[in-house]
């Protein structure tokens, strides 16, 4: 029995299978996700809702473990077998002692920009140059891949043009496998249970598709670029910590041809399209105020977690079937103490608190705006800005 009580709203993972429930009990398989609704009078039982089936019922506390949040760890890697720019001789040394199927991927020293797949087979290490062809990667020009993760996944199942199937990755020293950590925390989903449908959106880094996971409608963000997918691990880590009715909920992650981020499907789309397709006759002032309240509550929750969204806009507010506004797109969300790549910020309309950790700092941007120099204006500094803003509002 757990040492502490789980509060309503806590997400848990089932530790065993229970497919023949008694009346009132919940059926589940090992690894299913449930949300605690309430604790029963008996401390060893909870009433919970199954994420996939939507059913509610009782289950024993001993069958559960809490779903852990994923830590944003710089050592966490989608490609722990990628060793960067090392020589062929260094690769051979790393792949010792010989073991069929032991492999790593490195950057080519002789051909900058290309990669090399190094595979241990028999007593030898075979080096396969990975070529760029029309935006894809290939070894034999017969089979092409979106990225390195796609290539490794393929040759792990079918040896194809290489000497043997990829069996065991040689992990770079210090690297942690994102796949292992996601599975351990309960956030890694099964690709076989996912059905993809039509595209419903286009983000900065990839398409958003409608789909179905174990009978539940979902939205799937598909990120194929391996570098971008690696960067989006931070977004995933942020979303695993966020549980609020006015935030779009993360269901889990699938590693296939890059990264699939699986989220709840919010049926009425973003606020921009919702308002444009209805007009003032259908969306009255009380409804707009209600949306504003929902957004404010979601943002207040983020603030309580010491997070700044950095890209709050109507296009990133989604409306559910029961007209609940939910904040989405945490691609720019960062912990307040961290730095930021300013090249991704919509500077003109970003709030000052979202800019304050940028490089250069906002006071330098303001100085450049007024004097085209990299220093703060002399004298009163930026006191002219409030007047400029009032003038804009008055137009």
Automatic annotation (TrEMBL):
Gene3D superfamilies: Phosphorylase Kinase, domain 1, SH2 domain, SH3 Domains, Transferase(Phosphotransferase) domain 1
Sequence ranges assigned to domain SH2 in this UniProt record: 81-170
Domain Protein kinase: 194-395
Reactions performed catalytically: L-tyrosyl-[protein] + ATP = O-phospho-L-tyrosyl-[protein] + ADP + H(+)
Listed GO MF terms: ATP binding; non-membrane spanning protein tyrosine kinase activity
GO CC terms, sorted: cytoplasm
Location relative to the cell: Cytoplasm
InterPro entries the record matches: Csk-like_SH2, Kinase-like_dom_sf, Non-receptor_tyrosine_kinases, Prot_kinase_dom, Protein_kinase_ATP_BS, Ser-Thr/Tyr_kinase_cat_dom, SH2, SH2_dom_sf
Binding site for ATP: 221
Alphabetical keyword list: ATP-binding, Cytoplasm, Kinase, Nucleotide-binding, SH2 domain, SH3 domain, Transferase, Tyrosine-protein kinase
Domain SH3 residues, every copy: 7-69
Main EC class the enzyme belongs to: transferase
Entries under SMART domains matching the protein: SH2, SH3, TyrKc
EC number(s) stated in the UniProt entry for this protein: 2.7.10.2
Family that this chain belongs to: Belongs to the protein kinase superfamily. Tyr protein kinase family.
Official protein name in the record: Tyrosine-protein kinase
Species this chain originates from: Hipposideros armiger
């Amino acid at each position: 029995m757990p040492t502490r009580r789980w509060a309503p709203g806590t997400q848990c993972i089932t530790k065993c299978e229970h497919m023949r429930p008694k009346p009132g009990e919940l059926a589940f398989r090992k690894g299913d996700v449930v949300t605690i609704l309430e604790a029963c009078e008996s401390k060893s039982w909870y009433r919970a809702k199954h994420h996939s089936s939507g059913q509610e019922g009782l289950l024993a506390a001993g069958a559960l473990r809490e779903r852990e949040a994923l830590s944003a760890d710089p050592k966490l890697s989608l490609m722990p077998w990628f060793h960067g720019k090392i020589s062929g001789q260094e690769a051979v040394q790393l792949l010792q002692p010989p073991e069929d199927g032991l492999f790593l991927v490195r950057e080519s020293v002789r051909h900058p920009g290309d990669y090399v797949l190094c595979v241990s087979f028999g007593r030898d290490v075979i080096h396969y140059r990975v070529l760029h062809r029309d935006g894809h990667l290939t070894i034999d020009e017969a089979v092409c891949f979106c990225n390195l993760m796609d290539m490794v996944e393929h040759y792990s199942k079918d040896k194809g043009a290489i000497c043997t199937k990829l069996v065991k990755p040689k992990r770079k020293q210090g690297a942690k496998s994102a796949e292992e950590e996601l599975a351990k925390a309960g956030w890694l989903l099964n690709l076989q249970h996912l059905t993809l449908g039509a595209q419903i959106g286009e983000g900065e880094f990839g398409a958003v598709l409608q789909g179905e996971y174990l009978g539940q409608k979902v939205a799937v963000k598909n990120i194929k670029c391996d570098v971008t997918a690696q960067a989006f691990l931070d977004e995933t880590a942020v979303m695993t910590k966020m549980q609020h009715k006015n935030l779009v909920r993360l269901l889990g992650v699938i590693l296939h041809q890059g990264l699939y981020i699986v989220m709840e499907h919010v049926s009425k789309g973003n606020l921009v399209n919702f308002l444009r397709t209805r007009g003032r006759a259908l969306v009255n002032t009380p409804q707009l105020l209600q949306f504003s309240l929902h957004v404010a509550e979601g943002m207040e929750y983020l603030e309580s977690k010491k997070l700044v969204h950095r890209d709050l806009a109507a296009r990133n507010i989604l409306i559910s079937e029961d007209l609940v506004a939910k904040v989405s797109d945490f691609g720019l969300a960062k912990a307040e103490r961290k730095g930021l790549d300013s090249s991704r910020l919509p500077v003109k309309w970003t709030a000052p608190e979202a800019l304050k950790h940028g490089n250069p700092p906002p006071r330098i941007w303001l100085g450049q705006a007024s004097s085209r120099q990299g220093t703060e204006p002399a004298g009163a500094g930026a006191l002219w800005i409030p007047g400029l803003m009032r003038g804009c509002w008055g137009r």
